[in-house]
Automatic annotation (TrEMBL):
Residues 1-28 form the signal peptide. Keywords: Isomerase, Signal. The keyword Signal applies. The keyword Signal applies. Pfam families: CTI (PF06934). This is 9-hexadecenoic acid cis-trans isomerase. InterPro entries: Fatty_acid_cis-trans_isomerase. It comes from the Bacteria. GO terms for molecular function: isomerase activity.
Length: 787
């Protein structure tokens, strides 16, 4: 008897039922052949030969060949191979990044949301190691990881410098996440998609190491024990973070909410170990019992929270690595900063969202000048919290900032500290953030609410600024923080690379079109909007409200910078930054400038005040200005500087063919030097939420060349010797079409198809680690080009 579905819906249901039935049959047959799947005991003690084999041969190989694609949130199939726990957890077919979800997803954070492989199996993760009957043969035959490695050995890279179209490297590609039952079908349909995907196969010795490990049950070992010097430091800082008084508990909560994604390290000890501060149900001296919440300020569900140092168990990745030094000097400084002032704490703040999401409410008792000084102490890290953050893909979030700009900070004003604290306390309700609506939020109603609040706050801020400069006094560079003469965090450069971004110390590259001046209120809100309050698993309303509110904060930072310029130039400058915006948008942009129209206190001498201001700021920052990433620094040979500086003079033209991030290595007679060629995308304005391409001004694109490697996601590796430098630069300058670019790559690039790719990758990582032992992490290859 034939069955005719009455509608497309019925047809779809029928197909799903048939496919589901097929899957059940396939699973049943697999169970019959290999036994039912269940997690295996894979961890061995550290003094065993299996542990030695894992630590010395297997783990380094997995890091250098696998983690470079499987380390971040957006790792294909959520397969994070950066730790034994991640390897054993396995993969998941669902997408973490979904900008259209109507309701928040359940978080699936390794080490946080579940603590056992069994728990992950109950939450849609499946094993990539054999979890059925255990034998050397079955461990390979029924293990996804083993079979994917074998598939690559059987089908090496297709010949040619550029891979064919069957290789899709776009970030939004449909993922293929085969389970052990689905591997036969995967191998038949995608024979060229063995692992590493779209990269050269492992060498025969490397493949044999991993296959031997997999055959023998993929035994793994925990980290080697910490020595006593680390234990002493941990005890010291946990003691500092867990005082019993209300003041100590409030300060510790404040520190935790700003350190929760930091990689803390003890700078007085050798590099290599990093720690995260976590909330625990247990006090120091007992095993950590982590409190898992979406946000660091969510209700912990216990009467007393303890702040503990948890040893980082995963590979350090450049994208998520935010190092923060702890040492004795800093312990003394923070003790003085937070406890020497005679302020009183009579009660601890609530964890209710409307309070906890608003730091001006929850930490009202702590003087704002103390909070601000703490944030400035490691301002690069503070900014890094939202520029890098644990989010691995963020084009919608990042199209709220320009591709390159400089950041300065308002000088903490000790004389008016109480007045400033009173102002922020008075403005608490106006400084509320959309994260108060948590992870399931409405879009329009929330945006209108917070737009009105921000407008009111800017009005009140302008009034306060007008009152702050009576009797002919006006804003000058005296109000800009100079790092107190010894803090190198006073001036920063931010680079955006479409869907990722980087922050570095110093003023890198040519003078940018825009800059921000950040004060305490702005810095704190940026952190609680984009770091502490942001949930990557949140719904579309939460994500869009976050993006829309960041528009307000960018405008505020730009307003602070423009206030240093002559009043008659501010509007013209703003018009350059916001070409083609609507009348209502232009009115919003100009509103704070109408409220605060005082002349600048700077005596400008030229008709180019912005350039003059930049020079004044450079002079002010000179004692603390970091030049490590400037092309013009003492370590750059003159011939390198002369050649590479030509790339920074290009506007439009060849830049339109260049990738976002090019890692350039130049082999010299004494050593290899590394540079980064960054493309800066120009826009008529950056007010568009979803139509960024319509605002692109490609003819105004530029390039910045930095000393050292900047960025977590290289698009291209260029490897040349000094004799080739001028010809490489000339080739870039002469780019006019795709054929020119392909020739450039043919002559100088280490493509993803290059047989020497892994050797070059290993060298780059080793040199970077040697040069930056605390800062370096593995680069991510998910954005490598294929052209």
């Amino acid at each position: 008897m034939k069955f005719f579905p009455k509608s497309k819906t019925a047809l779809l249901i029928t197909i799903i039922a048939i496919l589901g039935g097929c899957a059940m049959i396939a699973n049943s047959q697999f169970d019959d052949m290999f036994g039912t799947a269940e997690p295996q005991a894979r961890m061995v003690v550290n003094n065993s030969t299996q542990a030695e084999f894992y630590h010395q041969q297997v783990q380094p190989l997995i890091e250098q060949r696998c983690v470079v694609c499987h380390g971040c949130y957006d790792a294909p199939c959520q397969l994070k191979l950066s730790s034994p726990q991640g390897i054993d957890r396995g993969a998941n077919k669902a997408l973490v990044y979904d900008g259209t979800r109507l309701t928040a997803a359940t978080p699936k954070r390794l080490f946080i949301d579940h603590d056992s492989t069994e728990a992950w199996r109950n939450n849609e993760f499946y094993g990539v190691l054999n979890e059925r009957q255990q034998s050397p043969a079955l461990n390979q035959q029924a293990g996804v990881m083993s079979r994917l490695l074998s598939l690559k050995q059987q089908h090496p890279m297709p010949k040619g410098k550029i891979l064919p179209k069957q290789f899709n490297f776009s970030l939004d590609r449909a993922q293929q996440c085969p389970t052990d039952v689905e591997m036969d079908s995967y191998a038949q349909n995608f024979p060229d998609w063995g692992m590493p995907f779209g990269l050269p196969a492992l060498s025969q010795p490397e493949d044999e190491i991993l296959q031997e490990w997999l055959r023998n049950g993929a035994k793994m070992a925990p980290l080697l024990p910490l020595d006593n010097t680390y234990k002493v430091q941990i005890a010291t800082w946990e003691s500092f973070l867990n005082g019993d008084s209300l003041k100590e508990r409030l300060v510790s909560r404040y520190l935790y909410e700003h350190w929760f994604i930091a990689h803390l390290y003890f700078s007085e000890l050798p590099a290599g170990e990093f720690f995260k501060v976590v909330r625990s149900r247990t006090p120091p001296g007992q095993p950590i019992d982590t409190i898992a919440t979406r946000r660091p300020y969510d209700e912990p569900g216990v009467e007393r929270v303890y702040y503990r140092l948890w040893r980082e168990r995963g590979t350090i990745l450049e994208k998520t690595h935010m190092p923060y030094a702890l040492n004795n000097d800093r312990l003394i400084k923070y003790t003085q900063l937070f406890f020497q002032d005679n302020y009183q704490v009579t009660a601890l703040p609530s964890y209710k969202p409307e309070v906890a999401s608003n730091p001006f409410k929850s930490f009202e008792a702590i003087p704002s000048v103390a909070r601000y000084k703490f944030l400035l102490e490691e301002a690069e890290f503070t900014i890094m919290n939202f520029i890098k953050s644990p989010v691995c893909r963020g084009q919608v979030a990042l199209n709220v900032i320009n591709d390159r700009f400089w950041v300065f900070f308002v000088n903490p004003n000790e004389l008016h500290a109480k007045e400033h604290s009173a102002f922020y306390n008075d403005q608490q309700d106006k400084l509320a953030l959309p994260s108060a609506a948590e992870s399931n939020a409405y879009i329009l109603t929330n945006w209108l609410k917070y737009s009105k609040l921000q407008r009111t706050f800017m009005h009140n801020k302008a009034i306060k600024m007008n009152r702050a400069f009576p009797n002919g006094e006006h804003l000058t560079t005296d109000q800009i923080w100079d790092g107190d003469g010894d803090n190198t965090n006073a001036a920063l450069t931010i680079f955006r690379h479409i869907d990722s971004a980087t922050v570095v110390k110093g003023l890198v590259g040519r003078e940018p079109q825009t800059s921000w001046v950040i004060d305490y209120g702005l810095l704190e809100r940026i952190h609680y909007l984009l770091a502490a309050g942001f949930d990557v698993y949140g719904n579309i309303g939460h994500q869009l409200n976050t993006r829309l509110y960041m528009d307000f904060l960018r405008i505020e930072g730009e307003f602070n910078f423009l206030a240093l310029l002559p009043p008659d130039t501010r509007k013209a400058e703003l018009n350059k930054w916001y070409q083609g915006v609507s009348g209502s948008q232009r009115e919003y942009l100009m509103a704070p400038h109408k409220l605060f129209s005082q002349p600048s206190g700077i005596n400008y001498q030229t008709k180019q005040p912005k350039q003059e201001l930049y020079q004044l700021l450079k002079q002010k920052m000179a004692p603390v200005l970091v030049t490590d990433n400037n092309l013009e620094n003492p370590d750059t040979p003159n011939n390198h500087l002369k050649a590479l500086d030509k790339l920074q003079n290009i506007v439009g033209g060849p830049t339109t063919l260049m990738p976002q991030i090019t890692f350039l290595s130049i082999q010299g007679t004494d050593k290899t030097r590394y540079y980064t060629v960054l493309r800066n995308n120009a826009h008529s304005n950056i007010t568009s939420l979803l139509s960024e391409d319509e605002n692109r001004l490609t003819e105004q694109d530029t390039m910045t060349v930095t000393s050292g490697l900047v960025g977590a996601y290289p698009d291209v590796f260029i490897n040349i010797n000094e004799a080739q430098l001028n010809s490489y630069v000339s080739s870039v300058l002469a780019l006019s079409n795709k054929a020119d670019y392909q020739k450039l790559m043919d002559n100088y690039a280490i493509r993803r198809t290059d047989p020497n790719f892994w050797q070059h990758s290993d060298t780059v990582h080793a040199d970077n680690k040697k040069q930056h032992p605390y800062k370096a992490g593995l680069f991510d290859y998910n954005r490598l080009q294929n052209r």
